[in-house]
Amino acid sequence: MSKIKEQLFEKAKKEQAEYHNEVQHLSKDKIIEKAYEISIRQEIYSILEADVIYGNNFLSDNQAQVLLSSKFPVAEIYEEWLGNDYNSCQDIRQTVIDCVDVMQGEFVPYSFPQNRSR
């Protein structure tokens, strides 16, 4: 495990804990207003966590170092997310189609070819 990535993960973990503590003290209406932010920030944190805990190697050490230089890396990534053209609607649309296919019994998961050595 990379020391840099471990430091980034610990920093993100602390940031998320502080963020959750702040959110818990908000009114129910404010929490509902922040639901999207809460969800996306958790996704960002999960990606960073998987990179360290499961060794996904999503980030290079250099990229992790750049993020580590940020005072609040999760918030900074979230702000970048808000300003980009990416969206999760395509993934959700595909999930809707997959769900319908499963419900209709038409979903056929991809089957990897078996090695048939003789």
Annotation, overall tally of beta strands: 0
Described by the principal axes of the CA atoms, the overall outline is extended
The percent range for helix content is 55-70%
Strand content: under 5%
What structural category characterises the helix and strand content? mainly alpha
Biggest sheet overview: none
Question: Whole-number average pLDDT?
Answer: 86
Q: How are helices and strands ordered from N to C? A: HHHHHH
| Uncertain residue ranges | none
> What is the CA-based Rg, rounded?
19 Å
Helix count, per DSSP? 6
> Roughly how many Å apart are the termini?
40 Å
Written account of the structure:
With 118 residues, this protein is an all-alpha fold. Helix 1 (3-24) runs antiparallel to helix 3 (35-53), helix 1 packs across helix 4 (61-68) and helix 3 (35-53) packs across helix 5. It has helices spanning 3-24, 28-33, 35-53, 61-68, 73-83, 89-103. The protein contains 6 helices and no strands. It is 69% helix and 0% strand. The radius of gyration is 19 Å and the shape is extended. The model has no long low-confidence stretch (mean pLDDT 86).
